[in-house]
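FAQ

Q: What does a record look like?
A: Structure on top, sequence underneath. For example:
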């Protein structure tokens, strides 16, 4: 029989409190969102680093594989000790962030891997990660933040499709080992199985920007048929157009006018060997986006939409139904951002010995379909 798969002492599962005098605890200082942090004292940095090695069930495999993952994490952290240390201090200072960190330990090293844009350096990736969660803590309703990041799912309500079936809107954190952004809006079926997703982050200090890293539809042999059927159920409104409208609604609610979207070439999954099933660049250009430096497309501050007079008379009835459905979906998002109570869901992470299971089963993936 195989021996239990326990980590070696001193590598994983270590507690920072073990290195403190009896009765002392490694408590963090409560920094406010957006506050400028002073350089961490070496002792404080070490305490946060030791804490970040705990409960790392995203490091999978036999103990020596997990030990190798821990070693790589420590070495990468040592390349940017103060920047990474400030981010760890920020996470440890906020109970909401600690709740999310326990559910998704990958949060602590997301910036050490491919992330949102392949042209971003590691420090830029870390800054964007830090900026998004400062924004989220300061701007998202407290209940919504807890349900999205602490519990892994928030239901924003439903819309009625053409045939009377229910379509639901959900807000979720990034998937396990996600690299395309920190907040996910989804269009789902009645049982909240995702049909379309758009993933984005809010970054920037003086100039706030919303960056879109993913627009994902169904995948597999029947993906096109699903998209066609869904478009019919939305009275001719393309699902990806609806998802982009919801992101514009989010940005408008917070007064964000700068919206940029990643290009095909700069997408973090471009070099991973996965097939590209659709063309991001073509869709952004269709939305009047302009290619800019850094692998981005700058989208207009507001979406271009037709008026009823621009539609022929025989199609105006369908146009009105389509716009009414779009407005209803946008109102669901605004209602959630206004602090209304939303539904809860089960935990993202199932803590099993030697394993880490994601909150959702994402098998085959596609880009914007």
């Amino acid at each position: 029989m195989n021996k239990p798969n326990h980590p070696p002492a001193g590598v994983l599962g270590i507690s920072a409190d073990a290195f403190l005098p009896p009765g002392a605890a490694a408590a963090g200082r409560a920094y406010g969102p957006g506050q400028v942090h002073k350089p961490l004292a070496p002792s404080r940095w070490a305490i946060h680093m030791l804490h970040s090695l705990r409960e790392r069930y995203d490091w999978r495999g036999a103990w020596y594989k997990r030990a190798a993952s821990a070693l790589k994490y420590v070495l990468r952290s040592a390349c940017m000790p103060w920047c990474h240390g400030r981010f760890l201090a920020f996470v440890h200072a906020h109970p909401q962030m600690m709740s999310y960190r326990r559910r998704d330990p990958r949060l602590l090293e997301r910036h050490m891997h491919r992330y949102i844009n392949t042209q971003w350096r590691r420090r830029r990736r870390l800054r964007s990660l830090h900026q998004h969660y400062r924004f989220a803590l300061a701007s998202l309703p407290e209940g919504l933040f807890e349900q999205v990041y602490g519990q892994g799912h928030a239901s924003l309500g439903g819309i009625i499709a053409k045939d009377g079936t229910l379509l639901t809107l959900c807000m979720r954190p990034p998937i396990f080992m996600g690299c395309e952004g920190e907040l996910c809006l989804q269009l789902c079926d009645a049982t909240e199985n995702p049909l379309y997703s758009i993933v984005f982050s809010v970054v920037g200090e003086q100039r706030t920007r919303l960056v879109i890293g993913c627009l994902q539809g169904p995948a597999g042999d029947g993906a096109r048929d699903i998209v066609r059927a869904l478009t019919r159920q939305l009275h001719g409104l393309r699902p990806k157009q609806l998802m982009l409208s919801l992101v514009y609604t989010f940005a408008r609610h917070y007064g964000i006018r700068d919206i940029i979207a990643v290009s095909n070439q700069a997408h973090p999954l471009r070099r991973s060997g996965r097939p590209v099933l659709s063309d991001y660049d073509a869709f952004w250009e269709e939305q009047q986006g302009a290619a800019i430096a850094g692998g981005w497309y700058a989208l207009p501050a507001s979406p271009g939409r037709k008026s009823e007079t621009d539609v022929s008379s025989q199609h105006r009835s369908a146009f009105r139904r389509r716009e009414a459905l779009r407005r209803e979906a946008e109102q669901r998002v605004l209602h959630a951002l206004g602090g209304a109570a939303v539904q809860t869901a089960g935990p993202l992470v199932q803590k099993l010995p030697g394993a880490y299971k994601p909150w959702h089963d994402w098998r085959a993936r596609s880009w914007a379909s």
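Q: Is there anything notable about this one?
A: Residues 110 and 179 are 7 Å apart (CA to CA).
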